[in-house]
Amino acid sequence: THNLPPGLEYLNQLDQIIIHQQVELLEAILGTETSSKYEIKNHLGQRVYFAVEENVCFDRKLCSPIRAFTIRIADNTGREVIRVIRPLRCNSCWFPCFLQELEVQSPPGTVAGYVVQNWDPFLPKFTIQNQSKEDVLKIIGPYATCGCFDDVDFEVKALNEMTTIGKISKYWSGFVNNVFTNTANFGIQVPVDLDVRIKAVMIGACFLIDLMFFENSLDGL
């Protein structure tokens, strides 16, 4: 573990990561959009990281869900260990040259990998790349991302797109919770021996999927 980026040793033995969005009281009552905050937990529900989105109110109001952002992820001591950077880009299959791309750094300032959207007329598709921009994994979502009272799974696949090795799941957590607070609850399942840097990139991919498909959707209801 001495070769791991500082703070990523927490991910070394994890094959399941839970991401829970925290809802501010003002946002829940008035519907006012505030910066997103997340707890990142292990399968036992123990918090291992805390994430805060940084952007400006103008971006959240006008550009959501394609807004640019920086998400800073800190461990339980408050040390920033992962930084997720998303530039403002298109969210339409009609602009295949300017699709979504996200950079994940760990430690902050050092690239751990990238999430790159792939053009497809029917399915949400992404490629996970390492720090050298070499393709590592694929993520393929369903044709319809509305849950309709059920979970929504984005499958994590090998580069041949034939072998499924994990998934990113949007959990449906009930009508009242989804409609009136629009909280995000995700689960990431990956092989336990996956490079911790790629696990960090998968966390970034989860944030991107949340904003692209669920930010203003009332979770498919």
TrEMBL record:
Cofactor list: Ca(2+)
Q: Which cellular component, as a GO term, is one annotated location?
A: plasma membrane
Query: What GO MF terms are annotated?
Result: phospholipid scramblase activity
Phosphoprotein in keyword set: no
Among Pfam families, the record links this protein to: Scramblase
Reply yes or no: does the keyword Calcium apply.
yes
Keywords, in A-Z order: Calcium, Lipoprotein, Palmitate
Superkingdom: Eukaryota
The record ties this protein, via InterPro entries, to: Scramblase (IPR005552)
**What does the UniProt function comment say about this protein?**
May mediate accelerated ATP-independent bidirectional transbilayer migration of phospholipids upon binding calcium ions that results in a loss of phospholipid asymmetry in the plasma membrane.
Family the entry assigns: Belongs to the phospholipid scramblase family.
Q: What is this protein called?
A: Phospholipid scramblase
